[in-house]
Structure formats: structure tokens, C-alpha cells
Specification:
- By secondary structure, this protein is α/β, with parallel strands linked by helices.
- The chain has 2 domains: about 180 residues, Thiolase/Chalcone synthase (Peroxisomal Thiolase, Chain A, domain 1, 3-Layer(aba) Sandwich); about 120 residues, Thiolase/Chalcone synthase (Peroxisomal Thiolase, Chain A, domain 1, 3-Layer(aba) Sandwich), CATH 3.40.47.10.
- The protein is built from 11 helices and 13 strands.
- The strands form 4 sheets. The protein has a 5-stranded mixed β-sheet with strand order 1-7-6-4-5, sandwiched between helices. A 4-stranded mixed β-sheet has the order 8-13-12-11, with helices on both faces.
- Helix 3 packs across helix 4 and helix 8 packs across helix 9.
- The radius of gyration is 19 Å and the shape is globular.
């Protein structure tokens, strides 16, 4: 059986960590740090824009991809598929994945390169797409999938919600086409509800709302929270999605070694693990160090779990991600 196995992981964050008190000073905002840390679990983060670092999405993605390739021991020239998963791309066009391919392969190759934009669910969507490419196309031996986030580039001055939660970062995985062994991508399950598009997003800059002087003067740009997000949405969505994924894959819950969820709210993850009747030791949370890195947070947490030894080769791992719009996805992989 042909499989797409994860053979390397890597992460990148710009600059030194910024704790909550330093963030208040740099961004000129105020919020309850104690409640923030207790409920969301966010204690520090990395933000290029606030620290004078001249790096953006493509830089984060490139450096995470290089780290993952080094971890895998794979030459960039052996990569036949590059996917960047993000809703904060370097440009509207061309795709960020094309830029990453150019930086790592140095010019024209026969590789395929494209972006996946499914809000903060982009990485699990891209992982599913990459795995299926590898399993069906013998010409592709290695793929690189990068989940990357640069939402602070879109946060407006004085936006307490935006500055206190969102951060910069990228996580990458290298996939290898294999014809032997058990390691590899098992399956994925997804949910979409496009009627929920008008909760939170970056609405200016596309064809419906081009950026104009009038729009900028009104402050009608950047990250916008149009409606309050339901606080229990992920609690309602994630457990059934996990159960559906395991049923689809024919895997018992008792065989799952680890779970990784979107890293936006520690208390939500704790409640979901309780609903699943799983101990907290079987999940990884990195929002305390990295804040919320959207499309980057799931691969960043996977790298942390893998490099720390909390997950090891042969383990079955469930990856769950939620994105605005609404897009939610769950993937099952055997490391």
C-alpha cells in the first residue's frame, strides 16, 4: 500500500518572545493579563511588526520549510510538491508557495506549487491534499506543506482583540511517498459552512472590497470582527468530528496516542479532552509560548510534540483545526 509519511517537521517564529505586559506597551493597548493567561493560555508570542523585524509570510514559510527539510534530511531539489497553507499570504497573487519554491529550488523545476486558503483550517486541508497527491502520483516523491500565519500584519492600531491573541509563526512538514511500512497519512474528515463567512476575517483587498482611500479613512480594512464568535463552537464541533474521523478510518479511539487542536483557547481544549474522556497528557498546547498562530499552530504543536518525544514513530495522532468562514478539518496520521 502506498503511503505519505511525515519524515520531518520544523518551525519558525520571528524575534524574541513578547510577554503580555510588553505587548501592552508596544501595541498601546490594555487587557486583563491574568484572565487572558488563565482562560486562553496565552502568555507570550512573536510579532515581527512590533519588534522592527523586516519579515513577512514568505520569510516565515521559507525558514520553517528549511528547518523541516533539514530535519528530514531531504534535499529541496527532491521536492515535487510545495503547498503553503495560509489566509495571510505574502501577496494576493502570486501564491506564496510559488515564492517558497523559488527560494528553496532557485529557479524553474518540475514541481507543483500552490496555496490552500481555508482560514485557520488551511493546514489540515493542505495536508490532506498533499498526502493524496503523493499516494496517486508516482512522479512526486517528497512534498512540503507549510502552515504559516502573519495576521499581525492586518491588525489595526488599538485593536485589543487582535493584538492580544494573534501572532506570527510557521510550522512545516515534509512528506515522503512510501511503498512499505505503516507510517503515513490515514484519512481526513471536514466540515464547511459558508453561510458563516461574516464573523471574522480580512475583508478588504479582494474584488468585493478593494482597498481605497475612503475605506482606509473609515478604518474599514485589516482584521475585522463583524460578529462575536460563539464561545462554544469548537466544543460542539470537535468531538463529533473526531468520532466521525475514527469511524471513517476504522480506528478505535483507544489506539490514538495524541491529539492536537487549534491553539486559540486552552480552556476549550481542556473541555474537549474531557468530552473525549482523554487525559490532558495526550494533547500538546503551545499557545503559552507562541500565542495564536492560525494556520501555523497545528504543525507548530506537532513539531513540539515530536521533538519533545511526546509522540514517537508509530503513534497515531489526530490533528483538528478550525477556521473562520466556517471551515473545520480533522486528519489522522501515523508517525
Amino acid at each position: 500500500m502506498i503511503r505519505a509519511a511525515i519524515v520531518g517537521t520544523g518551525i519558525y517564529v520571528p524575534g524574541d518572545p513578547i510577554d503580555n505586559e510588553t505587548l501592552k506597551r508596544l501595541a498601546g493597548i490594555d487587557f486583563d493579563s491574568s484572565r487572558h493567561e488563565e482562560k486562553l493560555g496565552i502568555k507570550s508570542r512573536h510579532i515581527a511588526r512590533l519588534t522592527g523585524i523586516d519579515e513577512t509570510t514568505a520569510d516565515f514559510a521559507e525558514k520553517a520549510a528549511r528547518a523541516a527539510l533539514a530535519d528530514a534530511g531531504v534535499d529541496p531539489m527532491d521536492v515535487g510538491l510545495w503547498i503553503v497553507a495560509t489566509d495571510t499570504p505574502e501577496f494576493i497573487s502570486p501564491a506564496t508557495a510559488i515564492l517558497v519554491q523559488g527560494r528553496l529550488q532557485g529557479g524553474q523545476t518540475e514541481a507543483k506549487s500552490f496555496d490552500v486558503g481555508a482560514s485557520c483550517a488551511s493546514f489540515v486541508e493542505a495536508l490532506d491534499a498533499a498526502a493524496r497527491h503523493l499516494m496517486t502520483d508516482p512522479a512526486i516523491r517528497h512534498a512540503v506543506v507549510v502552515g504559516v500565519y502573519n495576521m499581525p500584519a492586518y491588525i489595526r492600531e488599538g485593536d485589543v482583540f487582535g493584538w492580544s491573541i494573534f501572532a506570527d509563526g510557521a510550522g512545516a512538514v515534509v512528506l515522503e511517498r512510501r511503498t512499505t511500512g505503516d507510517s503515513g497519512y490515514v484519512d481526513g474528515t471536514f466540515v464547511t459552512d459558508g453561510t458563516q463567512w461574516n464573523f471574522v476575517g480580512v475583508y478588504a483587498g479582494g474584488t468585493r472590497q478593494p482597498v481605497t482611500h475612503d475605506r482606509l479613512d473609515r478604518g474599514d480594512y485589516g482584521l475585522q470582527l463583524l460578529q462575536k464568535l460563539p464561545g462554544d463552537r469548537n466544543i460542539r464541533l470537535w468531538p463529533p468530528l473526531v468520532h466521525r474521523l475514527l469511524e471513517k478510518a476504522g480506528v478505535r479511539q483507544a489506539d490514538i496516542a495524541h491529539y492536537i487542536f487549534t491553539q486559540i483557547n486552552r480552556s476549550v481544549i481542556e473541555e474537549v479532552m474531557g468530552i473525549l474522556r482523554e487525559p490532558l497528557e495526550k494533547t500538546t498546547m503551545v499557545m503559552d509560548r507562541f500565542g495564536y498562530t492560525g494556520s501555523g499552530c497545528v504543525p507548530m504543536a506537532l513539531h513540539d510534540a515530536r521533538s519533545s518525544g511526546r509522540v514517537k514513530n508509530g503513534d497515531l495522532v489526530v490533528l483538528v483545526a478550525s477556521g473562520a468562514g466556517l471551515a473545520v478539518g480533522a486528519s489522522l496520521v501515523r508517525l
